[in-house]
């Protein structure tokens, strides 16, 4: 079962596991590359991308800045549509509401389409604890649910599994052996989940956008499982982050332009559905009863915080993951939380309010800014990572060893005879560890570095040692040049200039 | 039982209404302004102006829709009349051996008389008999036949709206989906269709608005594209007129 509780290990330990998994590394690199190129192509083809990004940012900024107005409007309109709207301050409250609804629907099973909020709440566990089967119906989510793992990518959750592993998992479920063939595997899932859709009393969804002016909720997907979940069962529950709001359908055009292109490079996902209330009295399908649970769970803490409010602008496209050099190497599991990549590195500690406990994931970044460049609503994630690191140090949760090291560095570098002494000591000491001119030991302070590289040895004669001689040589060299030599050099320069004028010579950049 | 359920829902609603105030007050307090009750100025509503002015002539719309729909694995046929559409659907049904067909209950489709054109198939008409389990009828169907309410060339999308006579299941559960698109409903931009929902307003919207841009698909297994994961794997867009 998908579980997002933080494990004991650090990001570094989990990243080491990921780095040692050859298939995972290749798969993550391949997929992120594919998605990144897809996005690049789609945004170039569409044109005026910067203007669209800016427009997307403005709409999100405006909505969040007036969230009390727009969320309230949404709630009132959804109620007028016949939706039962609920509020959950915490994840726990959202879980209790969901369980209450499941009990009253006498549900035996719940079919779910992809929802990051439900991952955030660990809802599947809770449902199972009251004897309700929770079935993830997105193909990738279904696979990782059978494997009992967490999603490793926002958009492609089972990116880390190969077809042989998937065939094994699905064969266990089928009770007979399935071939490691994509079409056969997907065919089995289609059949299996069809039964689940038709049996389930409750369909549960996330929410990509909620339209304030009409109380509608919008879902983007490719498989059709979200449509199944909102069409077939009698009761629908939608879990919605309180910040998912946009004012109007017109604004949806901007989001529909940015989201699929940024996520997968598509012009539009195969399905985009706007659901406005439960089925009308005479409709032949659609849910009889519809609930929307609006979840805070740490989100409102970002409101009014000048450094982090823009986090709420996120439209969950995953483009920052695909752009991030760190994510592309270690994959999503190394982050140890529901949300991975640059957005996860900022969102997780912010939602959890406990920067100290999640401190190490803010360190899993090179601050290169690729995430900001990729973000369709221009969230300055790299700045936020710096703010997080600063807050961590300010709250007294900095790395003790690092501070000690920095102090030591200052002491040594602040005084030249001290530096000379340390270098002499080093030259003596390294005799123990240098083999054929390099240091390969994985003991002591060089362990981290030497795991993937070797450390060069200190030279017999350092730059500092040679400085006296160099200094003298330089001073002599500055004396006037021998006239014959000077003439020869000037000739050469003139010749080159002539050649350049005639279009010959290799120094032009043309 | 029914009363108990209603009572429970009423209890939840009164709790929700009480909490709504607290929730909204918390937001406005955090944002540092008093509760906003008047509609704020929204100078950036919708797409940029240059985009709103963009429109293709009809032939370009047809060409773009076709190439977009084909590029994701859908099929497109350009037909002159509804009669041609009827022949096309009947021929495909025969070719693929479609036994069960379900269609929306719309006058344009009534006029097609698919029932007469496909004697080998059992054609059911959505929601015409209250005793039927209509979701099951749609789930067993080989073919689903619908009429598009709108279509968008730029994204290669078709819009279907739900109603008493138009089931959501008909465009979702069958194996093959046939979408008839009267050519005058084909627009250039997504925004042209979306704007109609703002204009209609909350109480005029149907429960389900669905944009369909091709066959159901997934790349979740080793990035390998699979078609027809949950929804129809074969989708025909018939541009008529």
Question: Layout of helices and strands, plus pairs?
Answer:
The complex is a heterodimer of chains A (510) and B (241).
Chain A: H1 11-20, H2 22-46, H3 49-65, H4 67-80, E1 84-88, H5 91-104, E2 109-112, H6 116-121, H7 123-129, E3 133-136, H8 139-147, H9 163-174, H10 182-199, E4 202-205, E5 209-211, E6 216-221, H11 225-231, E7 235-241, E8 245-246, H12 249-263, E9 271-275, E10 289-295, H13 319-323, H14 325-330, H15 341-352, H16 359-363, H17 370-374, H18 381-394, H19 400-413, H20 416-429, E11 434-435, E12 438-439, H21 447-450, E13 455-456, H22 463-477, H23 483-501
Parallel strand pairs in A: 1-10, 2-3, 2-4, 4-7, 5-8, 7-10
Antiparallel strand pairs in A: 5-6, 6-9, 11-12, 12-13
Helix pairs in contact in A: 2-12, 3-12, 9-10, 15-18
Chain B: H1 2-31, H2 49-52, H3 58-71, E1 75-79, H4 82-96, E2 100-103, H5 107-112, H6 114-117, E3 122-125, H7 134-140, E4 143-147, E5 150-152, E6 157-161, E7 176-182, E8 186-187, H8 190-200, E9 208-212, E10 217-218, E11 226-227, E12 234-240
Parallel strand pairs in B: 1-12, 2-3, 2-4, 4-7, 5-8, 7-12
Antiparallel strand pairs in B: 5-6, 6-9, 10-11
In short:
Chain A has 510 residues and is of the alpha/beta class.
Describe the overall structure:
Chain B: Pfam families: LUD_dom. Chain B: This is LUD domain-containing protein. Chain B: Residues 64-240 form the LUD domain. Chain B: It comes from Paenibacillus arenilitoris. The complex is a heterodimer of chains A (510) and B (241). With 510 residues, chain A is an alpha/beta fold. Chain A has helices spanning 11-20, 22-46, 49-65, 67-80, 91-104, 116-121, 123-129, 139-147, 163-174, 182-199, 225-231, 249-263, 319-323, 325-330, 341-352, 359-363, 370-374, 381-394, 400-413, 416-429, 447-450, 463-477, 483-501, and strands at residues 84-88, 109-112, 133-136, 202-205, 209-211, 216-221, 235-241, 245-246, 271-275, 289-295, 434-435, 438-439, 455-456. Among the domains of chain A are: 63-302, 3-Layer(aba) Sandwich (Rossmann fold); 400-463, no CATH class; 480-510. In chain A, a hairpin with a 2-residue loop joins strand 11 and strand 12 (438-439). In chain A, helix 9 packs across helix 10 (182-199) and helix 15 (341-352) crosses helix 18. Chain A is elongated. Chain B has 2 domains: 1-42; 57-240, NagB/RpiA/CoA transferase-like (Rossmann fold). Chain B contains 8 helices and 12 strands. The radius of gyration of chain B is 22 Å and the shape is globular. The termini of chain B are far apart. In chain B, 46% of the residues are buried. The chains are: A alpha/beta (510), B alpha/beta (241). Chains A and B meet through helix 2, helix 3, helix 4, strand 1 and helix 8 of A and helix 1, helix 7, helix 8, strand 9 and strand 10 of B. Strand 9 (271-275) of chain A pairs antiparallel with strand 9 of chain B.
């Amino acid at each position: 079962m998908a579980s997002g509780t933080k494990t004991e290990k650090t990001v570094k330990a989990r990243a080491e596991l990921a780095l040692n998994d050859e298939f995972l590394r290749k798969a993550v690199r391949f997929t992120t590359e594919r998605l990144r190129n897809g996005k690049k192509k789609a945004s170039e083809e569409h044109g005026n991308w910067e203007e669209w990004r800016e427009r997307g940012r403005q709409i999100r900024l405006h909505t969040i800045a007036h969230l009390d107005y727009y969320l309230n409007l949404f709630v009132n309109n959804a109620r007028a549509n016949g939706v039962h709207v609920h509020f959950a301050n915490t994840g726990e409250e959202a879980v209790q509401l969901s369980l209450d609804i499941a009990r009253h629907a006498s549900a035996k099973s719940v079919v779910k389409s992809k929802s990051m909020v439900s991952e955030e709440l660990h809802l599947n566990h809770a449902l199972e604890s009251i004897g309700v089967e929770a079935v993830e119906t997105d193909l990738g989510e279904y696979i990782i649910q059978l494997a009992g793992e967490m999603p490793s990518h926002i958009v492609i959750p089972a990116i880390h599994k190969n077809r042989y592993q998937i065939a094994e998992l699905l064969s266990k479920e089928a009770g007979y052996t399935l071939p490691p063939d994509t079409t056969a595997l997907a065919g089995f899932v289609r059949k299996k989940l069809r039964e689940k859709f038709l049996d389930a009393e409750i369909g549960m969804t996330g929410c990509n956008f909620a339209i304030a002016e009409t109380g509608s909720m919008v879902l983007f997907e490719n498989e059709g499982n979200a449509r199944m979940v909102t069409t077939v069962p009698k009761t629908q529950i939608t879990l919605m982050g309180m910040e998912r709001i946009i004012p109007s359908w017109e604004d949806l055009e901007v989001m529909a332009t940015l989201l699929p292109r940024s996520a997968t490079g598509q012009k539009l996902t195969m399905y985009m559905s706007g659901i406005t209330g439960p089925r009308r009295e005479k409709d032949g399908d659609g849910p009889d009863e519809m609930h929307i649970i609006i979840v805070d769970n740490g989100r409102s803490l970002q409101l009014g915080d000048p450094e982090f409010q823009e986090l709420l602008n996120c439209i969950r496209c995953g483009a920052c993951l695909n752009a991030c050099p760190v994510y592309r190497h270690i994959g999503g599991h190394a982050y140890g939380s529901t949300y991975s990549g640059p957005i996860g590195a900022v969102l997780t500690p912010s939602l959890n309010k406990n920067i100290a406990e999640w401190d190490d994931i803010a360190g899993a970044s090179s601050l290169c800014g690729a995430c900001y460049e990729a973000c369709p609503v221009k969230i300055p994630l790299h700045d936020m990572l710096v703010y997080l690191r600063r807050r961590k140090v300010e709250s007294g949760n900095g790395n003790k060893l690092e501070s000690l090291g920095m102090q030591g560095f200052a002491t040594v570098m602040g005084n030249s005879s001290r530096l000379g002494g340390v270098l002499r000591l080093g030259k003596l000491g390294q005799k123990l560890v240098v083999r054929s001119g390099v240091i390969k030991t994985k003991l002591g302070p060089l362990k981290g570095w030497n795991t993937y590289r070797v450390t060069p040895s200190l030279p017999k004669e350092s730059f500092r040692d040679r400085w006296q001689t160099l200094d003298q040589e330089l001073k002599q060299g500055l004396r006037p040049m021998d006239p014959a030599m000077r003439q020869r050099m000037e000739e050469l320069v003139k010749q080159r200039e002539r050649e350049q004028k005639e279009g010959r010579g290799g120094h032009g950049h043309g | 039982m029914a009363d108990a359920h209603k009572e429970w829902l009423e209890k939840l609603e009164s709790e929700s209404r009480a909490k709504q105030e607290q929730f909204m007050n918390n937001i406005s307090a955090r944002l540092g302004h008093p509760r906003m009750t008047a509609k704020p100025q929204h100078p950036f509503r919708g797409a940029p102006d240059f985009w709103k002015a963009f429109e293709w002539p009809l032939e370009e719309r047809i060409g773009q829709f076709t190439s977009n729909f084909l590029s994701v694995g859908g099929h497109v046929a350009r037909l002159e009349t509804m009669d041609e559409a009827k022949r096309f659907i009947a021929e495909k049904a025969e070719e693929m051996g479609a036994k069960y067909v379900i269609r929306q209950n719309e006058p344009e489709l009534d006029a097609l008389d698919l029932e007469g054109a496909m004697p080998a198939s059992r054609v059911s008409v959505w929601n015409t008999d209250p005793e039927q389990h209509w979701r099951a009828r749609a789930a067993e169907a080989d073919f689903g036949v619908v009429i598009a309410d709108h279509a968008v060339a730029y994204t290669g999308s078709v819009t279907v709206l739900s109603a008493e006579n138009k089931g959501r299941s008909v465009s979702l559960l069958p194996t093959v989906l046939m979408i008839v698109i009267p050519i005058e409903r084909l627009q250039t931009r997504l925004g042209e269709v979306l704007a109609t929902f703002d204009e209609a307003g909350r109480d005029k919207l149907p429960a389900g608005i669905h944009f369909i841009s091709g066959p159901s698909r997934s790349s979740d297994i080793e990035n390998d594209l699979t078609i027809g994961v949950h929804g129809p794997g074969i989708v025909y867009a018939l541009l008529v007129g």
